[in-house]
Amino acid sequence: MSKLIRHHDNANQPIVDVSDDTLDLIYFNVVTLAAGQSHSFQLPGHEAGIVVLEGQVDICVDGQDFNGVGQRKDIWSGSADAVYVPLDTPARITARGHAVCAIAGGVATEKLAAFRITPQDVEMVDVGSVETHTHRQIFHILGQRQNGQVSRLLISELYADPGCWSGYPPHKHDTADGTVETDHEELYYYRFDPETGFGTQCVYNDGEEPQNLLTQNGDTFLLDRGYHPTSTSPGHRGYIFTILVGRHQRGLIQRFEPKHVHLVDAIPGIQAMRDAFK
Hints:
Jelly Rolls; single chain; eight-stranded antiparallel sheet; 2 helices; 46% strand; mainly beta; seven-stranded antiparallel sheet
C-alpha cells in the first residue's frame, strides 16, 4: 500500500531502504553536509545516482574522482549536476561548503561504469499548459539519453507551476503487460517555493477507496501501485524529485486511466513526456 513519510531530520540516514514494507526496488536518502564533512555509502544489490540539490561536492566512486559537482545554490537555480554509482560500488561525498545531496538507488542486474551527468546532459521536457492547469517541466537526469549506461534506474526533477497538476492525466505503471504498461515502483520527494506551499497526492486503484494525501515541503511518497495524479497549491511552485525503478526493464510505459484517455490529446506535450521515459 502506498504511503507518505513526513519530513523529519533523518540525520543522513536512509529515508527508504531494503527494510521498507512498501517498496522493494528503491533506496532513497537526503544527505546534508557542512564544509569538509563527508558521507560514505555502498548499496549491495543497487546502482545509484548522487544528485546535488544544493551547493558543491567532490565525489569519489571506487577510487574515481568527480570534483566540483554541483553548480546551483538550490533546486530552484538551474539543472542538476550528478554522478552515477554502479552496482555494489563504494562512494564518498565530501562537501566544499554547505551542501545537500539526494542519493537515489535502484535494484540493478548488471554492473556498469561510473560517469558524471552535467547540467548540459540533463534533458528537459515541457508538458501541459497554464490554460489546462497542467504546466510542468520535467528534467531527466538519468533518462532516455543514458540508455545503455544504467541498468534499471530513472531519475528526474519535476517543476510544477503554481496551482497546476502533474502526473495528469491519471496513469499507472504497476503491471508488466507487453508494450502497453510496465511494472515500475516510484518515489516522490516534494519541495515547495515558498516552503509554506503544499499539494495533494491522490492514489487509487480500480474498485478501491482512493487516498488523498496532503503533501508538504520535505515529504516523501512511496508508490507501489495505482493511479497517482498530483496537485500544487496556488501561489507556490512545486518540485518533485522522482525515482523510478523497473521490475523487468528500464524503459517506462504508463497506462492512462481509460476514462481520461481523451485528455492525452487535449494537454500539450504528453507524448513527448512518454517518449522521454522509455
